[in-house]
Predict the 3D structure of the following.
Amino acid sequence: MAYSEGMNQYFITGVSSGIGLALVKELLAQGGELTIHGCSRRDPGINDPRFHFYPIDLSNTNELEQKAHDFFTVEPWDFKRLVLVNNAGILGEVAFIGEQQAKHYISTFTVNALAPVIFSEVFIKLFQYTDPERIIFNISSGAANKDMEGWAAYCASKAALDRFTSVCAQEQTHKETPIEVYSISPGVIDTAMQAEIRSASKDKFPALDRFLTLHQDGELLPADDAARKLILLLNKPDLRKQPLLSLRNI
Ligand SMILES: NC(=O)c1ccc[n+]([C@@H]2O[C@H](COP(=O)([O-])OP(=O)(O)OC[C@H]3O[C@@H](n4cnc5c(N)ncnc54)[C@H](OP(=O)(O)O)[C@@H]3O)[C@@H](O)[C@H]2O)c1
C-alpha cells in the first residue's frame, strides 16, 4: 500500500455536542490540510467540505465492529497523520446499584468502554503496519479513579477504558511501527453532560452539591478550551509522556 505526504485525517466519535463538537470546530478553524470524519446519532450540521458526518449509534453492540470498519475505510489511505478520538460517552442512569435496570448498564458500558475498545481494535488492525504518525485518544474521566456514588456504570466503564488503554500502549512498545494510544481525562467541562449531572437528585447522587457549586463558581472549563488543549496535546509530543493523561495538567 502506498502512502503519500497527504493530509491529516481525524476520526472523532461524539461530534454532535460538547467536547467532540468543539474539537471539530477548532480543528477546522485552525486550518491546514485536514479531513475530519465524525460520527454520532445527531448530525452536528457542519457545512464544510473538510468534514464528513456518519450517523452511527455506538450503543448497538453487535454492529460496532462493522461500523468501525466502515468508518475507517471511507477514504483512500493518504495521510501524514491519522488520529482517532474516541470521545462519545454517556453518564447513563444516575442511581445506586440495586436500583437500576440491566439495560442501563449495557448501554453505558457499550458506549463508554466497548465502542472505544472495538474502534481501537479495528483502527490498530487496519493501520498497524503503516509509517505515518497514528494516535488514539480515548476520552476518559477522573471518575475512572474515583468512587462516585450513583455513577457505578460510568466509573467502571471509564476505569475499563483506562486499563485497556494502558495495556494497549504497552503492547505497542513491541511493534516496529507503534501506534500511540492515550486515555485522557478532560476535567470538568461545560457541556450537556455536566447539565445532566446537575439535574440528578441528591438521594441518587450524594455529590450533587459539589457539581452545583463548581457551576455556580464558574469553575467549568468551556468545551472550546478543552478542544484547544487536546489539539495542543496532539501537536506537542513532549506533553504525551504516559498513557494516562489529564487536560488539567496541560
Ligand atoms: N463534560 C465533562 O465534564 C466531562 C468530564 C469527564 C469526562 N467527560 C467525557 O468527555 C466525553 C464527551 O462528553 P461531553 O461532556 O462533551 O458530553 P456531551 O455534550 O453529552 O456529548 C456526548 C457526545 O457523545 C455522543 N454519543 C452519546 N451516545 C452516543 C451513541 N449511542 N452513539 C453515538 N454517539 C453517542 C453524543 O452524540 P449523540 O447524542 O448525537 O449520539 C455527543 O456527541 C465523554 O466521553 C465524557 O464521558 C466529560
